[in-house]
Structures are given as C-alpha cells and as structure tokens.
Design a protein that fits this description.
The structure holds 2 protein chains of 2 kinds. By secondary structure, chain A is of the alpha/beta class. In chain A, about 20% of the residues lie in helices and about 25% in strands. Chain A folds into 3 domains: about 55 residues, OB fold (Dihydrolipoamide Acetyltransferase, E2P) (Beta Barrel), CATH 2.40.50.140; about 150 residues, P-loop containing nucleotide triphosphate hydrolases (Rossmann fold, 3-Layer(aba) Sandwich), CATH 3.40.50.300; about 55 residues, Orthogonal Bundle (Ribonucleotide Reductase Protein R1, domain 1), CATH 1.10.40. Classes of the chains: A alpha/beta, B alpha+beta.
C-alpha cells in the first residue's frame, strides 16, 4: 500500500514578488520567501505561478497549491526563434484593474500598442485605466495638443485617461484616487516611466530608474522583476519589466470586435450579421459608423491590424 | 456634443504614412496593378492605369489609409494642379489655364461621394484619360456644384489643346 505524506497546510497567501524560482508570499501581514513544492513542480502550473496568484504553502515554505484564478492577463510569449512553438506568458492574476502606461514623449507614444493592452484587458474582462506619463515634456509643445486629442478620443469610448508627470507631480493625485482599493497592474514598454510613477506614488520607495537611451531612443530595461507594492490609501500596484512586444493571446479573431467597446453595440447589425469581419463586407455597420465619425478611424485601423494577426 | 472623430484634428499613429502599399488588383477591371515607381513614375500609386478607377482608402491625406469606406472611385474629369512643378508648367503656344501645374485626375467615391484629385501616372492609358476629359462635359449641375465646393476646377473646352499636348505630345 502506497502512503503519500504532505506537510500540513499552514497558510494561504498572495504571491507578491517573483525572482527566478523564489516567490515572496504575503499572508496575515508578513512576507515569506517560498519555493515550489516537488509535488507541484511537475505540474504545468508550476512554471506559471505569477504575481497575484493565491497559493497554499506548507511549513517548509513550499507552494503546494495554486488556487483558481479570478482572471489573468497574458500575452503571446516572445519566441526564441522564428517558427518556435507559440505559448502564452501570464503576466499577473486576480487583478482589479489594468493600467496601460504610455509616455507622451520619449519614447514616442505607440497608440496601437495601447489598443493591444486595452483589447487584452477587455478580453479578460478587467477594467482598464489609461495613464499617459511624462506630460511635462509636451506641456508647451505642439504634441501636447495631440496627446489631449488622443486622450479625448479614449475618454469618449469610456476609458478613464489620466495624464501624469512624475517630475512636477501633476495627475499623480488623480491616479492615487483611481488606484485606491484595487490591485492594479502597470503595463507598458520599457522607458515609459512605470517605475518613476511608482516612485511618485510612494516617495519613500526609491526604486531604481533610468533615462531613455539617447542613442537608441528606447528604454533600458531597468526593472527586471515583478513586484506588488502596497499603496498607503489601500490597494496595491504591480510593477512589471517593460514589454517590447505584446502579442495577443486567447483573443479569437471572431470575438475581437467585442473587445472594442465602441463597436460592441453595433455587433450583429451588419448585413452578414455576426459573420461580418468588418473589413471588406458590404453593409457593414462598423465601417458605416467609422465613416459617420462615430468610431475613431485610428481605432478601426487598430482593429484591422489585430484582426490580421488573430 | 463632441465633434465626430473624422472631424477632429488628426494625429500620427506609430506606423505613419507610407508611400506604397504594394501591388494590387483593380476593384473595377480585375487587372493586377504593379506599384513599382519605375513603371508608374509616382510613389503613391492610387489608381488603375488600365481603367483609371481608384479606391477610397485615404481619409486625411494621401497614403494614410485611414478611410473605412473602401468603395470604388470612378474617374470624373481632369484638372490642373494649382502649383506648377518641374513636371509641368506653362506650355508654349497654349493659352494659360487656371493653375499651370500637372494634369490631375479627379475621382469621385461611389460610396460616399468624396472627391479627390490625384497625380496622373506615367503608364496611365492616355486614350482613356482623353475619354474622361470628353465625358466631363456631360456632368450634371449637382456634381459641378460639389466640385466647386471642393475647390476643384475641371478643365473645359478652352483647354482642349493643352490636354491634347499633355497627353499625346505636339505631334
């Protein structure tokens, strides 16, 4: 007769930090560094324990079980070589809010990347809050007007957009209020100022930040691990390393239009009903709305671009 | 009420504006149209050289590909560009016309009625261009009014010799 022995479960906690194989688990007001139990190591979940996961640990400080996730944000993992097996990379789990971070300048804003983050959040049914950093760089420049236009465009769709500056502190208070009581995930490419924003929200933190490379015009990948930081007014914020690519995962091409909230009320109103791809089809309600100025042509182009990838 | 998106000030997406989007199949005649500028003499090929039809793909400026209309654009008439360039100027012996720039082909969208004036390419069918020029005399008043409102002045009978020289040369 085979008898298996497992040390008794002592505590249940949330993974707040992940560096290589070491996980910091917060439970009942204290943090403990844990590893993955041998019984879980062979399980597919062991590789994908992420920040925000609720886990059960034993007395030896080993994660024995990952509890079912409420939600998760995943991207298509960067492939090691062309043609390699595509697989998802889960960034964080059990979130209340996703905060895509875009710099107003330096590096130049990539609105299509913002749409990718938003589609990913919509697909996971997690609310999104758009944060545009480095507002001070464009305050008295012509690009400032462009940033306001884009912000207005996203606000018209229903997203909350906050323009901030870690340098002069503008917008930080509004952001603080929007983050209160929620577990939020900061996502954005390297150099947009995610960690600077965190330093502005938590002045005593003093996390390491670096300016964008002058030679390449890109971020320097200063943050190299994920970590949850508690906010003084309640809630917490997950800082992540910069993401150069954000390939959509688990977003079906057929459902993509649903991930654009402004297109959602029009679904099923096309001549080909739900079979319409909203590209070349005659009698398409979404194209009609773009032509009528009810849907942003830029967002529609983002839809087509993502549709071609899905 | 907010202004419609299409009326708002445009801004540049990361991809920016491209000169060419590659070869395409004409929506009207089905011919494959090469986009190579060595053949057409233009960087932004926007109409078929065989039937002169185009497609409504641009919204704010040539090459932005932001329009969702995508309907066929039919050739409507010929006009002259307001500013002269090294490709065209005053033609000796021909009476001066409004603007002395290049010959432009005016298109109208069959879906939304948008008008646009496009550069003529080197390999455009000259006899078809001539047929378009002759056909513009039959345009109705409503269409002429829309052209005027858009600031486009079609060439008329007084410019016949000019068009002839531009399309077929002096002999």
């Amino acid at each position: 007769m085979h008898v298996s022995f497992q040390p008794p479960t002592l505590f249940e906690g949330v993974v707040t930090k992940k560096i290589s194989g070491a996980y910091t688990v917060a439970a009942e007001g204290h943090n403990q560094t844990c590893t993955v139990a041998a019984s879980l190591r062979s399980h597919a979940l062991a590789d994908s324990i992420v920040i925000g996961d609720v886990v059960r640990c034993n007395t030896a400080g080993q994660i024995q079980e990952v509890l079912p996730r409420r939600n998760q944000i995943a991207r298509r993992a960067a492939l090691s070589m062309p043609g390699a097996y595509a697989h998802p990379q889960v960034l964080a789990a059990n979130l209340d809010q996703v905060v895509p971070v875009i710099a107003a300048a330096d590096p130049k804003p990539s609105w299509n990347l913002l749409d990718r983050y938003l589609v990913s959040a919509e697909s996971a049914e997690i609310p999104a809050l758009v944060c545009i950093t480095k507002g001070d760089l464009v305050a008295s420049e012509p690009q400032g007007e462009e940033i306001e236009q884009v912000a207005a465009e996203y606000r018209a769709i229903g997203y909350r957009v906050i323009i901030t500056s870690a340098l002069d502190g503008s917008g930080v208070q509004a952001l603080q209020q929007a983050l209160r009581g929620r577990l939020s995930l900061l996502v954005g490419k390297s150099g947009v100022g995610k960690t600077s924003l965190l330093n502005a929200l938590l002045p005593n933190l003093g996390l390491r930040v670096q300016a964008v490379s002058r030679a390449m015009g890109k971020g320097r990948h200063t943050t190299t691990h994920q970590e949850i930081f508690s906010l003084p007014d309640g809630g917490a914020l997950i800082d992540t390393p910069g993401l150069r690519e954000f390939g959509l995962w688990d977003v079906d091409g057929e459902d993509l239009a649903w991930c654009f909230p402004e297109m959602r009320p029009l679904l099923g109103q096309c001549r080909f009903r739900l079979d319409c791809q909203h590209d070349e089809e005659p009698g398409c309600a979404i194209r009609r709305a773009v032509n009528a100025g009810q849907i942003s042509p830029y967002r529609y182009q983002s839809y087509l671009k993502l549709r071609a990838e899905a | 009420m907010n202004a419609p998106f299409s009326a708002q000030r445009r801004y540049t997406r990361s991809a920016g504006i491209k000169d060419t989007f590659g070869d395409f199949t004409c929506l009207n005649c089905g011919n494959l149209v090469p986009a190579n500028s060595l053949l057409s003499g233009v960087r932004n090929r926007n109409h078929c050289p065989y039937c002169l039809s185009s497609r409504h793909l641009d919204l704010y400026e040539p090459g932005d590909r932001l329009s969702a209309c995508k309907e066929r654009m039919a050739p409507l008439g010929l006009a002259l560009k307001h500013s002269s360039s090294r490709y065209a100027g005053h033609t000796a012996g021909i009476p001066a016309a409004t603007g002395q720039g290049e010959l432009m082909l005016v298109h109208v969208c069959q879906g939304c009625g948008k008008l646009s004036a496009n550069r003529i390419a080197a390999d455009d069918d000259s006899s078809r261009l001539w047929a378009v020029f002759e056909g513009q005399a039959r345009l109705d008043l409503a269409r002429l009014g829309a052209l005027n409102a858009s600031g486009i002045t079609l060439l008329g009978a007084p410019q016949t010799a000019l068009v002839q020289v531009r399309l077929f040369g002096r002999n």
